[in-house]
Specification:
Order of helices and strands: EHHEEEEHEHHEEEEE
Distance between the termini: 35 Å
Strand content: 25-35%
Number of strands: 11
Shape: globular
Structural class: alpha+beta
Radius of gyration: 22 Å
Number of helices: 5
């Protein structure tokens, strides 16, 4: 399942340009339509919009099963719930042309893993390097850093497309959220993936596995979850 790709950028740009032309025609009634079009294009392309203020965000890793049978992981900072009542929906923003993005869309899902403050060393291993990079293994790099990936437990994962997905996890994360892809929207150098939550879990120290839980987790803050700032 790959979702529905909706490219809204041309529509948004055309709509915004039309509004700008209308406003300029009211302000400059003596200018020709060609002049207005030139003004519009210059104004629309103007880099006058300042960057948004930096906001501290929780740091996630998305683990996805690949058709090769392996697991791909990355680092995600743009992930958020977008609904409260069931079905519980999340959006996850994934860089285009990355292995985790490709595996997520090809398999139709994955597991979000919320990193703890003690796991900051895995961020450059999973987020600064590509799974497509020749001669580099994220799994081996994490193992050398003391975070050996663990095989999935079928008691945690929910059936997806008629079978239990085979996914490896990072041990000791604050929370685990299994997601199923619903749709995809192109967003510049990212794809925004709308997902439904199908299972949540926590790390069980005794069994060294991720176990499903129906109990809402306690509020997470800087003491229990890794943030960007």
């Amino acid at each position: 399942m790959t979702g529905h790709h909706i490219n809204m950028r041309p529509c948004i740009a055309t709509h915004a340009n039309a509004i700008l032309l209308l406003m300029q025609s009211l302000l400059y009634p003596t200018l020709s339509s060609a002049s207005l079009q030139t003004r519009s294009l210059v104004a629309f392309a103007s880099p006058s919009i300042p960057p948004p203020p930096p906001i501290s965000m929780p740091v996630w890793s998305l683990a996805c099963p690949c058709t090769s049978g392996n697991t791909s992981m990355n680092i995600v900072t743009f992930a958020t719930p977008v609904s409260v009542a069931p079905p519980k929906l999340w959006t996850v923003s994934l860089y285009t042309n990355t292995m985790t993005r490709d595996c997520c869309l090809e398999s139709g899902g994955g597991v979000l893993q919320l990193l703890t403050p003690f796991m900051s060393q895995v961020v450059p291993l999973l987020g600064k390097r590509s799974g497509y990079e020749e001669g580099y293994s994220k799994q081996e790099a994490c193992q050398e850093a003391g975070y050996e990936w663990v095989s999935s437990d079928s008691e945690f994962l929910v059936q997806h497309q008629g079978s239990i997905p085979s996914i490896q996890f990072l041990p000791g994360c604050a929370v685990y959220i299994q997601l199923e892809v619903l749709s995809v929207i192109e967003a510049g150098d990212h794809d925004v993936v709308l997902c439904q939550v199908v299972q949540t879990g926590v790390w069980d120290v005794a069994s060294q596995q991720v176990v499903a839980t129906d109990t809402p987790p306690e509020a997470l803050d800087l003491r229990t979850a890794l943030y960007t700032a």
